[in-house]
Amino acid sequence: MTSSEQHQPIADWFRRRQISVQIAAQAVDTSGFFDEVATLIGRDLLLKEVLDRIRWAQQKGYASTVIPFDGRSPSDAQKLTSFCRQLYDYSFVAKAIPNKQKNHLLLVVQTAPAIRHFFNGEWLEWFALMTCVEQATARGKRFACARNLGLRFSDGEQQEVDVVLLLDGQLPILIECKSGEYRQDIDKCVGLRKRLGLGGQHLVVCVAGLEDEMARGLTAMYDLSFVSERGLVQFIERIV
After folding, report:
1. Which of 118, 99, 122 is nearest to 110 (CA)?
2. pTM of the full predicted structure?
3. Contact (Cβ atoms closer than 8 angstroms) between residue 21 and residue 11
4. Which in 2, 151, 154, 200 has the greatest CB count within 10 A?
5. Contact between residue 94 and residue 108 where contact means Cβ atoms under 8 Å apart
6. By three-state DSSP, how is residue 157 classified?
7. How far does Cα 98 stand from its chain's mean position?
8. Burial class of residue 65, CB neighbours in 10 A (0-12, 13-18, 19+)
9. Mean pLDDT per 10-residue interval, the chain, length 240 residues
């Protein structure tokens, strides 16, 4: 994933259009656990509640947060507990302490910048990347992928693309990931799509938690492909 050979088809595609690229090889390094945790969160809305509570605690500067189990089914409580233990095993949280009397689980948050960035939005980039990799691999496709790809145009303008998927040397799929407010970036995405000469199906805006009806409406309005994290899996399945 981190080799120059893996990234080369993407670099070649942009350079043929007089666009230089800056490859962030470490951004696709799956030797850590970012990809695994992101995939779990993206596929289960229940687990996203844990992410939201950790992110809220980080933003407020709190040292910990709690995951309440009141009103939860036994299976959901067990799933949340198992996920929190996994976060602890992978060092995404400093401590995971169950409290049976108060029926919750205390999480002591990590302060490492990489973990803060992950919970603050990078998880969605990792989820998008692994969705592309898994779908292309499952279908035996020849592909190249990149995350945090820097673009420099001939006029000096610079942009960064969250995730890029290139299948069999065809037109690339560019994915912009938004875990929070996204509306202010729509014009930038439209401009990038036009500048690269791509159709709306080749520039995807993945917004965490976006409702399907909203996604369809925005797609029709802006000639971009708006999807939620669940919709992204379906979208990649269709095009691969």
Report:
1. 118
2. 0.95
3. yes
4. 151
5. yes
6. coil
7. 29
8. buried
9. 91 95 93 95 94 96 96 96 97 96 96 95 97 94 95 95 92 95 96 95 96 97 96 93
